[in-house]
Write a structure and sequence with these properties.
two-stranded antiparallel ribbon; 12 strands; 4 helices; Rossmann fold; alpha/beta
């Protein structure tokens, strides 16, 4: 099935089956324990849109535990960077309609939380088709090892995501039902 048709089906499925249930904080905490506790870990999140799985409850808990938080800012040519953000900071609406930090303190996350439309058991993701996250992950991995974690509802799993040479495999996918490693 072509990506665009699959994408539309999955977005409709998510919209029609949305549940106000996010990721279990304990699941993410187990993953973050792999990092040196003395090091200040920076986590790149996303602002949930179009019935994406809720991530702000986890974000706020991590912020209280003194993790540095960042959100993406989209750029020209379908590129993006991450900028430091706190839940106390104001967000502005980007040209593509997504709330973004107004802060200009660019940072490179140690852990990147990635939204998705669908995923498979091989940890490939289907996104919205813009390639923002795939470009960012590929660019960043050239000079820094980052942990990529997809957030999804369990019902977003499909048999096989159609991939091309630009698609980046995720390290882990967390769903409302468990962890895919």
């Amino acid at each position: 099935m072509p990506k665009e048709i699959l994408r539309n089906k999955l977005i409709n499925l998510r919209r029609n089956n949305y549940i106000d249930q996010g990721i279990n904080f304990t699941q993410l905490s187990r993953i973050l324990k792999k990092f040196d506790p003395k090091k200040k870990i920076t986590i790149g999140f996303y602002f949930p849109i179009n019935s994406e799985i809720e991530c702000f409850k986890v974000l706020r808990k991590l912020e209280k535990e003194k993790f540095k938080i960042s959100l993406p800012v989209t750029k020209k040519n379908r590129k993006m960077d991450f900028y430091q953000w706190s839940s106390k900071d104001i967000l502005k609406i980007s040209k593509i309609g997504i709330p973004e930090p107004d802060n200009k303190n660019k940072i490179i996350p140690d852990v990147l939380i990635v939204p998705l439309v669908g995923f498979d058991k091989n940890k490939y993701r289907l996104g919205y088709g813009g390639g923002y996250y795939d470009r960012y992950i590929k660019k960043t991995l050239k000079f820094k090892k980052i942990l990529t974690v997809g957030f999804a509802f369990s019902f977003q799993e499909i048999t096989k995501v159609p991939i091309n040479e630009f698609d980046q495999k995720l390290d882990i996918i967390l769903t409302n039902k468990g962890i895919f490693k």
